[in-house]
TrEMBL record:
<feature type="signal peptide">
    <location>
        <begin position="1"/>
        <end position="28"/>
    </location>
</feature>
<dbReference type="InterPro" id="IPR011045">
    <property type="entry name" value="N2O_reductase_N"/>
</dbReference>
<dbReference type="InterPro" id="IPR015943">
    <property type="entry name" value="WD40/YVTN_repeat-like_dom_sf"/>
</dbReference>
<keyword id="KW-0732">Signal</keyword>
<dbReference type="InterPro" id="IPR051200">
    <property type="entry name" value="Host-pathogen_enzymatic-act"/>
</dbReference>
<dbReference type="InterPro" id="IPR011964">
    <property type="entry name" value="YVTN_b-propeller_repeat"/>
</dbReference>
<protein>
    <submittedName>
        <fullName>YVTN family beta-propeller protein</fullName>
    </submittedName>
</protein>
């Protein structure tokens, strides 16, 4: 069985999976810190512009940590094994995928109270939403089902789409794109008709996904590249990166794409023309990226080094490396204060990095 999909009683820690995959990918083994037993999800932390609050999953305590601008952080109990969070900025509601309890918790962003618990299929993992349509999409890794939640009624339906580990929503085209870690294709779902299309992505092991304009970017872990997929024609162009690209982030202002190379300990910069124009050093095993477009700063979480690398996007060089918590693995930016919050796999669920 693929190391990213062990039995339901086991964890699916990405860093552990990468160590296990090392020999088959021709990567030298390295001595690593003892990994956490929690799950890794890039959507483990989210910012709400309407309330300026940060929400962070706390799977160890089956809770969500809530960080308000002028108040001390507080912990809100949710379902078992919370993994991912999405915020509807139009309604202010916050949605939490609870892997262990097969549910989504709905939090009122004004009162910070759980107002509904919605059942899903087995092992909800990724979550994304269409704010205008008020639809919430939840992938269920061990059931091949996509749960679609109506945010107006908090009712859910399940659609069989195949296994999915990440979701990107394109509301303009009424499409969602599902990425599966074990797949060679991206699944496109028409949100009006539920019609499903498989888009060849050009390689096995797809771990990172992002969209800019009509182009969908997907990382190829095994061959050190990113596939640029034209969503109109399904044409694919491969862009070389560093070793084991695993995470992506887009600067909407500049049209640039940043790729975290897990085994390469680096970040690849891809310009708006689709060319890899720079390789910037990062810390050990970078695994998440967030961008402050206003300041053109790039934040990279180095999971096995317990640090965050800060990159000047204009100069294309490292400004500073700062300490985070234990095994940092996801990032969110407060757009008002420019404070960066880091989700950690350790006992302390988050770290706040002061604005630069």
């Amino acid at each position: 069985m693929h190391p990213l999909h062990p039995q339901a009683t086991s964890s699916r820690l990405l860093s552990l999976a990468l160590i296990m995959l090392g020999p088959s990918l021709g990567i030298a083994q390295q001595t690593q810190p003892q990994p956490s037993t929690a799950l890794i999800n890039r959507n483990a932390i989210a910012y709400s512009p309407s309330t300026a609050k940060i929400y962070v999953v706390d799977p160890i305590h089956s809770a969500v940590s809530i960080v308000a601008p002028t108040k001390a952080a507080k912990s809100l109990p949710v379902g078992s094994g919370p993994e991912a969070i999405a915020v509807n900025n139009r309604t202010g509601f916050v949605y939490v995928a609870n892997s262990g309890s097969r549910s989504v918790s709905v939090i009122d962003g004004k009162t910070d109270a759980v107002i509904a618990t919605i059942p899903t299929a087995a092992r909800p993992y990724a979550i994304a939403l269409d704010e205008l349509a008020n639809k919430i999409y939840v992938s269920n890794t061990f059931s091949n089902m996509l749960t679609v939640i109506d945010g107006n009624t908090n009712t859910a339906t399940n659609l069989k789409t195949g296994s999915a580990d990440d979701i990107v929503v394109d509301p303009d085209k009424n499409q969602i794109y599902l990425l599966g870690y074990e797949s060679t294709t991206v699944t496109a779902v028409n949100t009006k008709t539920n019609a499903i299309t498989k888009i060849p992505a050009g390689a096995f092991h797809l771990w990172g996904i992002a969209k800019l304009g009509q182009t969908l970017y997907v990382t190829h872990v095994q061959d050190a590249s990113v596939a640029a997929i034209d969503t109109d024609t399904s044409a694919v162009a491969n862009i070389a990166t560093g070793s084991m690209p695993c995470a992506l982030a887009v600067n909407d202002r500049t049209g640039e794409l940043y790729v975290a190379n897990y085994a390469g300990d680096s970040v690849t910069l891809i310009d708006k023309n689709g060319a890899a124009t720079a390789t910037i050093p990062a810390g050990h095993h970078p695994q998440a990226i967030a961008i402050d477009a206003d300041k053109n700063l790039v934040y990279v979480a180095n999971t096995q080094e317990n640090k965050v690398t800060i990159i000047d996007g204009r100069a294309r060089q490292v400004l500073k490396t700062v300490k985070a918590g234990e095994h940092p693995y996801a990032l969110a930016l407060n757009l008002s204060t420019h404070t960066v919050y880091v989700a950690n796999l350790g006992e302390i669920p988050f770290t706040a990095l002061p604005a630069r």
